[in-house]
Amino acid sequence: MLQEGNLTTNESCQIHDGILSPFLPIGYIVICCIGLLCNTVTLYIFFFREHADTSMVVYMRHLTLADTLLVMCLPLRVYYHNKEGPFYLCKVVGIFFYINMYSSILFLSLISLDRYLKIIKPVWVFRIQKTKWSHAASYIIWAILISGVIPFFTSNNHEHPCDKICFHFHSKGLAGGTINLTTLVLFLIFYVAFLCFYVKITKKLRTMSMGNGDPKAQ
């Protein structure tokens, strides 16, 4: 009975990706190679070549750094695909992956807001457009994301039999579910804002191209 129970538990913990199973590792490796190449060039451009110190450059530096760290996690995700342990390192990789994924989303939203203010409201001066504020906002984003995942990093709860399988998602407790739901809602808010900013920017540029003037975007 004990062996049968263990067998049932092990079978229930298997991750079945179906048709995607053989293609996910290949896709991760391809994305990693292309991403590292492109981001290395971008890092050189924004960190080692002279640029005017603008809010756009500040956000692009942090976005490129986040993207680079994100693609560097992909080979480890391939290695841990449907594998067990070492669970401590697995947890580090998973948390590292999601920190950089969400930071990329947030920096893209800040870039879209920066473009919106400079194109739609070119004669207005906003504190958010100053480089000092841009640096502060970028550091705050990193601090909030890192602080938000500390509870997951420090938890040692392995009550569920599948808890020791990397990237296996099962039903969470109230705290974990609340954090996941909050993260999803915030993602949707930033995504909708991102779309709204660029829709308005596109309309403004289209109007300018029809002879009504040029946007004073920097």
Automatic annotation (TrEMBL):
The chain crosses the membrane at residues 26-47, 59-80, 92-113, 133-154, 174-199. It is found in: Membrane. Residues 38-218 form the G-protein coupled receptors family 1 profile domain. GO terms for molecular function: G protein-coupled receptor activity. Keywords: G-protein coupled receptor, Membrane, Receptor, Transducer, Transmembrane, Transmembrane helix. GO terms for cellular component: membrane. It comes from the Eukaryota. Pfam families: 7tm_1 (PF00001). It is a multi-pass membrane protein. Belongs to the G-protein coupled receptor 1 family. This is G-protein coupled receptors family 1 profile domain-containing protein. It comes from Cirrhinus mrigala (Mrigala).
